[in-house]
Amino acid sequence: MSSLRLFTQAALARTYPRAVWMVRNRTWLIQETVLPVLSVSAFAFVYKSMQAPPEFVGFVIMGAAMTTFWMNVLWSMGAHLYWERDSGNLGLYIAAPAPLMSILAGMAMGGMTTTTVRAAAIVSAGLFIFDVPLQPTSWWLLAGTFLLTLIALYGLGMMFASLFLLWGREAWHTVNLLQEPVYLLTGMNFPLSIFPTVVSAIALLIPLSAGMDAMRQVLFRSQGVMDVGWEIALLAVLSVVFLFFARRGLNTLERRAREEGTLTVRWQ
Amino acid sequence: MNASPHLRTLKWSAWLGWQIESNWADLRLFFLYLVVKPITGSLMLVCMYYAAKSASPTRVPSEFLPYVYISNACYGLVGTVMFGMSYVIVSDRENYGMLKYVFISPARFQTYMVGRGLARGLEGLVGGGVTIIFGLFVFDPVRSAFTGGIDVLWLAVFLAIGSVMLWSCGMILGSAVLNMHRNGMFMSEGIAGVVYFLSGVVFPISMLPNWLQVVAMSLPTTYWLEGMRRSLTGMPNADSPLGKSPFTEWSNWELAGALTLSTAVLFAFSQWFYHRNLQKAWRNGKIEETTGV
Question: How many domains does chain B have?
Fold first, then answer.
């Protein structure tokens, strides 16, 4: 079997349980759509009560939709190998002939599928309920930026996954710690331009910030930290860098985990 | 009823919870972890406030900043306990494979969950307290809101009734997760988000449509947060948009009464829900089931 075919088959096989879960477990319909929409509404009402410009509510809705991808990257990519190790699957992945990178690619594709449904529900309900004014400069540019943001984000998730191979409970707590501080730094609910330039520049190294800032410029014609073209270029670079380091990190850390005998250590 | 097994279970489960939460890092790093999350969560609201103010300077009253900041810090306690008590089920069952052993041991199962929630509650209390102190040092509007002084007696009353409310909320979510897969742990975040919205944590509930205000007024968390805000910063000015809340005419006694009543109903429901779900989980073999997607 050629290595490309093996990679594809393994990736699709890992995608399958995540995608089929949507059909088999119906509770997700409420959990993944209605609940997030209601929680987003709290922040939309903050701006409404402060009588902020209507596009600010749009920022909140976009932030909430993109946050679902960030959560998916953290919990279902980054922390997942730690969970797989605890449930005894990691040893099987390593022993199988398929490369570990294909398992991560499958987790990413499956995660993107389910998360896209959740994000779409948030955006649709948000736009419908709050009547946010959209003035896109180009739908194609928006779609391209969104896809590039996802590639960079999931590349970062793969990198986290390899790092977390070495950790025990620290992995869980690190994932926890990468929520609120990242929401703040990426300007999830507010324009990044309120930060000093240095802080915004650092924030743009997180794909979520660069992607959201670019998409806000395209969708609401708001002022961004950088020109959209530069932000797209930055996202492309970040995608390549994260995927490269994810691959290298995975190889290095897998070898280290084998040497230190931590691949099958459970309940750390 | 013999209280001793309950107390022993509570003591050791709280100790275990604290060890699991804290001994992965040295104390300084753990403390940093404890406060970074709530402080950055509140700072996000501060940034939203300043973003709205810079876009329309005359429309945003300065009372909004202490309102959202303090409410959010207090609500952190609800979030940590709700998430903590439901995550106990997922982690003990799926990560450590220990839930079945706890279930068959002489330890009292509900008390075990409460003890684990207690450890998370302590984290939430420290995180919320440090967040408020941070706000007092850094933001003038937050500092000005405290000029009237803290009403310690009412704060103790609301914290005491609130602890029963938190216990009930945690039990409801933990019980639901008993019959769910691993993804159930995210449900508590979703529910916490809904309660965050409906309890008017970061905006006055008078902003909600009338039918949602009725829902908001049926939640004990709404009364608890109003009580906590009042004990810490006093009543809002009548001429401020925050003074148009449905609670403007209520005294602290009325507020505490409504909180007690709604908490009693919630507690009764949580007990019924717990026993029902525990039976169901036991019959369906969910106590030892491990899942993963």
Answer: 1
A266 assigned to some structural domain: no
- Who among B24, B49, B194 is closest to A169 (CB)? B24
Domain that holds residue A241: 3-260
- Res A179: pLDDT: 85
Mean pLDDT of B209-229: 93
Q: What is the model's pLDDT at position B155?
A: 93
For A90-154, the DSSP string reads HHHHHHSSS-HHHHHHHHHHHHHHHHHHHHHHHHHHHHHHH------S-HHHHHHHHHHHHHHHH
Q: Residue B164 contacts by C-beta under 8 Å, 6 or more apart in sequence?
A: B263, B267
Cα separation of B65 and B46, whole Å? 7
| Separation between Cα atoms, residue B20 and residue B84, nearest integer Å | 12
- Asked, for residue A19, whether it belongs to a domain, the answer is yes
**What is the count of structural domains for chain A?**
1
Please indicate, yes or no, if residue B100 is contained in any of the structural domains: yes
Q: Are A18 and A110 in contact (CB under 8 A)?
A: yes
Q: Please judge whether B60 and A51 are an interchain contact, meaning their C-beta atoms are less than 8 angstroms apart.
A: yes
Q: What pLDDT is recorded for position B293?
A: 46
- For the cut 70, the answer to whether the pLDDT of residue A167 exceeds it is no
pLDDT interval class at B171 (50, 70, 90):
very high
**Residue type (1 letter), B153:** L
Cα distance from A142 to chain B (closest Cα, Å)? 24
The angle at the Cα of A72, spanning A68 to A73, to the nearest 5 degrees, equals 120
**In this predicted model, which residue has the larger pLDDT, A164 or B124?**
B124
Residue B293 lies inside a defined structural domain of this protein:
no
Residue of A nearest to B194 (CA): A39
**Average pLDDT of B214-242?**
87
Q: What is the pLDDT of residue B292?
A: 56
Would residue B173 count as lying in a domain?
yes
Residue B115's alpha-carbon distances to A93, B167, B274, in angstroms, are 37, 10, 16
Q: Are A106 and A20 in contact (CB under 8 A)?
A: no
Q: Is residue A267 part of a domain?
A: no
**Amino acid, single-letter form, for residue A99:** P
Number of A–B residue contacts, CB under 8 Å: 138
Q: Is A121 within a domain?
A: yes
Using CA atoms, how far apart are residues B190 and B196, in angstroms rounded to an integer? Answer: 10
- Residue B289 falls inside a structural domain: no
Summarize pLDDT for B45-77 with one digit per residue, the tens: 999 999 998 888 777 778 889 999 999 999 988
Out of A39, A187, A189, the one facing B194 most closely (by C-beta) is A39
Q: Which of B31, B32, B197 to mutate to test the interface with A (most CBs of A within 10 A)?
A: B197
Domain span at residue B167?
4-283
